[in-house]
Design brief:
The complex is a heterodimer of chains A (172) and B (102). Chain A is mainly alpha-helical. Chain A is built from six helices and no strands. The longest helix of chain A is centred in the middle third of the chain and has 26 residues. Chain B has 102 residues and is mostly helical. Chain B contains three helices and no strands. Chain B starts with 5 loop residues before the first helix and ends in a 13-residue tail after the last helix. The model of chain B has no long low-confidence stretch (mean pLDDT 87). Classes of the chains: A mainly alpha (172), B mainly alpha (102). At the A-B interface, helix 1, helix 2, helix 3, helix 4 and helix 5 of A face helix 1, helix 2 and helix 3 of B.
């Protein structure tokens, strides 16, 4: 059951992510990314992390993606421009190919490195205690990680002020 | 069928991260580039939760929580930057913003 759910959600996540970067309409990209985040939330449920799954849906698929949708609709640029002909930029036709090769290389390296790390305690899958309690997460955040939590609140305040200042219309 | 191990999740997370990197490399639209960064952050989140689950520790989910807040801050500032850039150049192509290019 878990195995089937994993492969279903993993397939949805990978296909949706590929489509996000595979087509040119930013609106469709945002919608497909919401699908991908939903599949990841399903994977978190398979991983016994319901709190993280719900946070994923509310914060990512809800708040952050709505922010992206606002900007896509506000700027109203449905299609990206075709590449300028002959321009030897990083994103030109040859640069495109180099980028694809680099990404494939990175995928190979990541798989190699991660699987080497993971192999040691992969067999302890069933023996590890399930830690899905929200109370445990809360006490962890507010005791051991209290400093990080406070730093995060400052970060959000700074980001809020920064966003307001950056997006403000300049009066000359 | 092979029972699930942490390696399944690590492999999926590596694939997702590479897809995000490919998006940053290949797309010619600043909004899609930001979306690709979100894909990468989510791939890392998946690693944290999977490793935390298989080690029987709750810290993976706590770090994921912090990553989400940082991602929200990053999206807010990044989108504000995109709006400011679009106001100046009337385009979202990264090729249009070369003032700082050496």
């Amino acid at each position: 059951m878990d195995v089937l759910a994993f492969y279903a959600f993993a397939g949805i996540a990978v296909i949706a992510s590929l489509l996000v970067i595979g087509q040119g309409n930013p609106m469709h990209s945002v919608m497909l990314l919401i699908v991908s985040f939903g599949a990841l939330a399903g994977l978190y449920v398979v991983l016994d992390a319901p709190f993280t799954a719900v946070t994923q849906i509310i914060v990512y698929a809800g708040a952050i993606m709505v922010l992206f949708l606002f900007v896509v609709m506000l700027l109203n640029v449905p299609r990206e421009e075709p590449a300028p002909g002959g321009a030897a930029t990083l994103l030109g036709p040859t640069g495109m190919r180099i980028g694809a090769v680099l990404s494939l290389l990175l995928a190979g390296e990541l798989l190699w490195a991660l699987l080497r790390i993971g192999f040691g305690w992969a067999s302890r899958a069933e023996t590890a205690a399930s830690v899905s309690s929200v109370a445990l997460i809360g006490s962890g955040i507010f005791t051991r990680h209290a400093f990080a939590f406070e730093a995060t609140s400052v970060l959000i305040l700074v980001a809020m002020i920064g966003a307001v200042v950056l997006a403000r219309r300049e009066h000359s | 069928m092979v029972p699930l191990t942490v390696n399944h999740y690590l492999a999926l997370s590596g694939v997702l991260f590479a897809i995000g990197t490919a998006g940053v490399f290949l797309r010619r639209n600043l909004i899609t580039v930001l979306l690709s960064i979100e894909i990468m952050l989510n791939a890392v989140n998946l690693t944290f939760v999977a490793v935390g689950r298989y080690r029987g520790s709750v810290d993976g989910q706590i770090i994921t929580f912090f990553v989400m807040t940082v991602a929200a801050a990053e999206a807010a500032v990044g989108l504000a930057l995109i709006i400011a850039l679009f106001r100046h150049r009337e385009t979202l192509s990264p090729d249009a913003f070369t003032a700082l290019k050496w």
